[in-house]
Input
Amino acid sequence: MIWKTRLTQMMGTKYPVIMGAFIGLGKANFAAPFSEAGGLGIITALNFKTPYHFKKELERMKELTDNPFGINISVLPPQIKGGHHLTEKSRDEYLAYIEVALSEGVNIFTTSAYQATFIGERVHEAGCYWFHKSATINHAISAEKASADAVTIVGLEGTGFKNPLTQTTLVNITMARRLLKTPIIAAGGIGDSRGFLGSIAMGAEAVCFGTAVKVCEESPAALKLKEKWINEDIFTEDYHQKIYHLKLRDRVLPSMAVGHRKKNHSYKGFYRRNYE
Ligand SMILES: Cc1cc2nc3c(=O)[nH]c(=O)nc-3n(C[C@H](O)[C@H](O)[C@H](O)COP(=O)(O)O)c2cc1C
Output
């Protein structure tokens, strides 16, 4: 099947599929097979201590794949202090990572977490695409007003940052299709072809996978952790409390998408079964 949406055209990918940002794991060895399999692999910039280390990783990514790939940078909300390299940064510090990616020929820039218009402006000035990820429709509307080329909206079923106004993926995508003109990327709890097709039917022009790809064969996550995630019972009270709780941002839990994954298939197998 040929998948053609405004997003496959911007990304230059075979499938309307984009890899999530992954703190800790979002490096070339994880992203390159994703791009090779026909989606848009994403290198998470803040996994690299300095723009120099990030540049080296982009060089490595280009050795591993000739297919399109993008980068992510999470702009931390002032009140959040994370681990890894998620320390507070100035605008110039964030922009230093963007300059490196531009110099390496990256064309797709994804931002998340907090206001990133200053990044979008620089990306547009360079003639590249800016996709922003939000957890609410209102933030998605703000991103459209700020001229984002696409908005990813993560539903309550997803993992990562939450907001008191976060809605489910079903509500987000159907409403966003009515309220926005900008192409939408669906995220949150999507783990197989039903979720993918449902998202496209609701009006998304691409789908972003986080949890579902972390448990794939190519993911550098430890096998034990993948097995633990795949075997997570998403219907327990304990899991329910954790996944729908706003404090989820303090730890990384598998999202509702693990309910759809009972094996750690390879990306290629995953794509073949689901989209062809
Ligand atoms: C291990 C892990 C690390 C993540 N790290 C980040 C991150 O650094 N920045 C970000 O914006 N999102 C991050 N996310 C969220 C994903 O990019 C994506 O938005 C989310 O996983 C989509 O929901 P899903 O897991 O239901 O597919 C992470 C997700 C996982 C599973």
